[in-house]
Amino acid sequence: LGLFTGIGLSEAKARETLRNGALSAQLRQAVLQARSALGPALDKATGTLLYNAAARLRAPKHLGFLVGYIARREILTDLQLSAALEYLRSHPMDPLDTVKFEQACGVGVCVTPEQIEEAVEAVIGEHRAELLAERYQFNMGLLMGEARSRLRWADGKSIKNEVDLQVLHLLGPKTEADLEKKPKAAKARHAQVEKQKAAVVENSEVGTEAQSLLEQLRGEALKFHKPGENYKTEGYVVTPNTMALLKQHLAITGGQVRTRFPPEPNGILHIGHAKAINFNFGYAKANGGVCFLRYDDTNPEKEEEKYFTAIREMVEWLGYQPYAVTHASDYFDQLYTWALELICRGQAYVCHQKVEEIKGHNPPPSPWRDRPVEESLMLFEDMRKGKFGEGEATLRMKLVMEDGKMDPVAYRVKFTPHHRTGDKWCIYPTYDYTHCLCDSIEHITHSLCTKEFQARRSSYFWLCNALDVYCPVQWEYGRLNLLYTVVSKRKIIRLVEMGAVRDWDDPRLFTLTALRRRGFPPEAINNFCARVGVTVAQATMEPHLLEACVREVLNEQAPRAMAVLEPLKVTITNFPASKVLEVLVPNFPADESQGFHKVPFQPTIYIEETDFREEVDKGYKRLAPGQPVGLRHAGYVIAVQNIIKDTSGSVIELEVTCTKSDMAEKPKAFIHWVSEPLVCEVRLYERLFLHKNPEDPSEVPGGFLSDLNPDSLRVVRNALVDTSVLSARPFDKFQFERLGYFSVDPDSKEGKMVFNRTVMLKEDPGKA
């Protein structure tokens, strides 16, 4: 503590440093080395440089080298130190070129007062007109920044003093006008808004208010390493062979970005996977690279062909084409060979602890950890030949992971035929073993995964380095979750088994196949992922935010049609023609250049029951006795003449008269209608669960199955839809005027079309 406070750290900062074992050890070494050169009393400026060097240096082997420059007063500023650290990060291998190092961080460079004066004078000369016009309202930081760019190693305080002096000489002392507060620049803010709008147009993102996903993923936006510069990444382990392996890697890839999307083919992709797909494929696309679709097919007992097919369909549905479709099983032979190599290097062993024994955070260490290499090789061969039963033996790697998990399993016995390799194998590799090695084989540059895999990053680096193969970089990002739903495969299977939903593609779920069936366009899902953004923190979003993206896209894509869900028969007693008329209805009323469709108009039409009332309430504007309404697109206004009821008193028919719109008083409202319609089934969906977090015991003590919404599906079996939809195919989308957006369901058959309501036209205020 005394050592650290002696270099200028506050006691609180010193105690905080002591809690970090690695940092305090490095700082102690640095201080003792500096004291041996400069004596026991170190000034605060030197102490600050030593602290920053110890805290920011990624390769401890270079600490003595760096402290030597600080102790010799050759690195005097934080600017120099930052340049030195960047050079060391970019040149991890020994020996260091000291001449280039000193050039990179300004060692021996002396900036004279005359040079500072000349540089400031030149900068002020370039901005003289603006300075005279704006006087002290001018941004003086701009002058300092430009002067610093001309004299990189100049002292910042000296530059500021010279700027102040020369500005005072040019403008004279400040006046009262100079001291007045500068009004906020409304124009600048307007320009920024326009710039954002331009970015939206440029990237063809409908309705996005911020950067498109490609903009977020392009180049420097993420501060990811460049291909071949893996060693610049925090925590990346550099071995004596690293630079040679990276050189080979660059020769194979040509410096191209390579990512991969690695789903397990044991379930259907959900909305969280949409972010992963966009992130992996999008990052490659944004940076001129390629993305592999690699199935992690290492668990044969849970894998089915339908999942392989559905996963690829969903990737392509979202608009992405894999560079190559691969399988972890493609590399089983190589993975097995590497497992033997790992044993030979003393880095893996065969263990007989049961699964239950090694579960949890503090399992007992394996009594077989130090068994001889030859014995492990023989037993691993016995595992391969099927001489051990399931659970009787595993191959484990010798390492401790970030979360404290010790010696993760690399191989286990499973007597299950594999869908691609058949009965060739009865041992299968685990995720911890397979993932990084498949990335290495495919020369992935950026292994992007969700935050929960951060605890496996050290094992990722360790395994590649233990086998002396190319080591990619794992980067983590935050998961995307939605409220009011479950996405767990196990829980969706429970919902299907108990009949709460029909299957994985039930439109009340948030699997991608379900969203497609409901009518969500892929562009909307991609836009939603862009709005969530490339975040490290987990994002839990409300479904209505996704639905807003859906409306924006469908407003541009879905042609209009008219449909009546609860029909009320209306007879026009003075119909103006002896035959059926045809009415032209624009497909997109806001843009009639996109064409029209015809709908029949005849004496019998149908309107919504809710568009008629016998008694008019205040604020009610639709059809009622004495209150006419217009018929959308027809050019007629109708007025009630007679109300026909059944024996129970319910209204079953209206008799009305019609008047041409241009000859009638303008009505208070226009309503939709159908004539000679198709009889269709319409499915109206609501949220599947009643609470935001159905899996949270504090919110739903009875478990998620007790939280099902009994009104999540209402089927209207005899809805009436105008004939313009007759030729529609499954997944075609329409806006039913005044009702919402609807999509043709694959259950449709000749003579009975089925529509799913995708979203309502406007957000339900109760759901926001």
TrEMBL record:
<dbReference type="GO" id="GO:0017101">
    <property type="term" value="C:aminoacyl-tRNA synthetase multienzyme complex"/>
</dbReference>
<comment type="function">
    <text>Glutamine--tRNA ligase. Plays a critical role in brain development.</text>
</comment>
<dbReference type="GO" id="GO:0004819">
    <property type="term" value="F:glutamine-tRNA ligase activity"/>
</dbReference>
<dbReference type="InterPro" id="IPR000924">
    <property type="entry name" value="Glu/Gln-tRNA-synth"/>
</dbReference>
<dbReference type="InterPro" id="IPR011035">
    <property type="entry name" value="Ribosomal_bL25/Gln-tRNA_synth"/>
</dbReference>
<comment type="similarity">
    <text>Belongs to the class-I aminoacyl-tRNA synthetase family.</text>
</comment>
<protein>
    <recommendedName>
        <fullName>Glutamine--tRNA ligase</fullName>
        <ecNumber>6.1.1.18</ecNumber>
    </recommendedName>
</protein>
<keyword id="KW-0648">Protein biosynthesis</keyword>
<feature type="domain" description="tRNA synthetases class I (E and Q) anti-codon binding">
    <location>
        <begin position="670"/>
        <end position="745"/>
    </location>
</feature>
<keyword id="KW-0436">Ligase</keyword>
<dbReference type="InterPro" id="IPR042559">
    <property type="entry name" value="Gln-tRNA-synth_Ib_RNA-bd_N_2"/>
</dbReference>
<keyword id="KW-0963">Cytoplasm</keyword>
<comment type="subunit">
    <text>Monomer. Part of a multisubunit complex that groups tRNA ligases for Arg (RARS1), Asp (DARS1), Gln (QARS1), Ile (IARS1), Leu (LARS1), Lys (KARS1), Met (MARS1) the bifunctional ligase for Glu and Pro (EPRS1) and the auxiliary subunits AIMP1/p43, AIMP2/p38 and EEF1E1/p18. Interacts with RARS1. Part of a complex composed of RARS1, QARS1 and AIMP1.</text>
</comment>
<keyword id="KW-0067">ATP-binding</keyword>
<dbReference type="Pfam" id="PF04557">
    <property type="entry name" value="tRNA_synt_1c_R2"/>
</dbReference>
<feature type="domain" description="Glutaminyl-tRNA synthetase class Ib non-specific RNA-binding">
    <location>
        <begin position="3"/>
        <end position="156"/>
    </location>
</feature>
<dbReference type="InterPro" id="IPR049437">
    <property type="entry name" value="tRNA-synt_1c_C2"/>
</dbReference>
<dbReference type="InterPro" id="IPR020058">
    <property type="entry name" value="Glu/Gln-tRNA-synth_Ib_cat-dom"/>
</dbReference>
<dbReference type="Pfam" id="PF00749">
    <property type="entry name" value="tRNA-synt_1c"/>
</dbReference>
<keyword id="KW-0597">Phosphoprotein</keyword>
<keyword id="KW-0007">Acetylation</keyword>
<dbReference type="InterPro" id="IPR042558">
    <property type="entry name" value="Gln-tRNA-synth_Ib_RNA-bd_N_1"/>
</dbReference>
<dbReference type="Pfam" id="PF03950">
    <property type="entry name" value="tRNA-synt_1c_C"/>
</dbReference>
<feature type="domain" description="Glutamyl/glutaminyl-tRNA synthetase class Ib anti-codon binding">
    <location>
        <begin position="558"/>
        <end position="658"/>
    </location>
</feature>
<feature type="domain" description="Glutamyl/glutaminyl-tRNA synthetase class Ib catalytic">
    <location>
        <begin position="256"/>
        <end position="555"/>
    </location>
</feature>
<dbReference type="InterPro" id="IPR050132">
    <property type="entry name" value="Gln/Glu-tRNA_Ligase"/>
</dbReference>
<dbReference type="InterPro" id="IPR020056">
    <property type="entry name" value="Rbsml_bL25/Gln-tRNA_synth_N"/>
</dbReference>
<dbReference type="InterPro" id="IPR020059">
    <property type="entry name" value="Glu/Gln-tRNA-synth_Ib_codon-bd"/>
</dbReference>
<dbReference type="GO" id="GO:0005829">
    <property type="term" value="C:cytosol"/>
</dbReference>
<dbReference type="GO" id="GO:0006425">
    <property type="term" value="P:glutaminyl-tRNA aminoacylation"/>
</dbReference>
<dbReference type="InterPro" id="IPR001412">
    <property type="entry name" value="aa-tRNA-synth_I_CS"/>
</dbReference>
<feature type="domain" description="Glutaminyl-tRNA synthetase class Ib non-specific RNA-binding">
    <location>
        <begin position="159"/>
        <end position="247"/>
    </location>
</feature>
<keyword id="KW-0030">Aminoacyl-tRNA synthetase</keyword>
<dbReference type="Pfam" id="PF20974">
    <property type="entry name" value="tRNA-synt_1c_C2"/>
</dbReference>
<keyword id="KW-0547">Nucleotide-binding</keyword>
<dbReference type="InterPro" id="IPR014729">
    <property type="entry name" value="Rossmann-like_a/b/a_fold"/>
</dbReference>
<dbReference type="InterPro" id="IPR007639">
    <property type="entry name" value="Gln-tRNA-synth_Ib_RNA-bd_N"/>
</dbReference>
<dbReference type="Pfam" id="PF04558">
    <property type="entry name" value="tRNA_synt_1c_R1"/>
</dbReference>
<dbReference type="InterPro" id="IPR007638">
    <property type="entry name" value="Gln-tRNA-synth_Ib_RNA-bd_2"/>
</dbReference>
<dbReference type="InterPro" id="IPR004514">
    <property type="entry name" value="Gln-tRNA-synth"/>
</dbReference>
<dbReference type="GO" id="GO:0005524">
    <property type="term" value="F:ATP binding"/>
</dbReference>
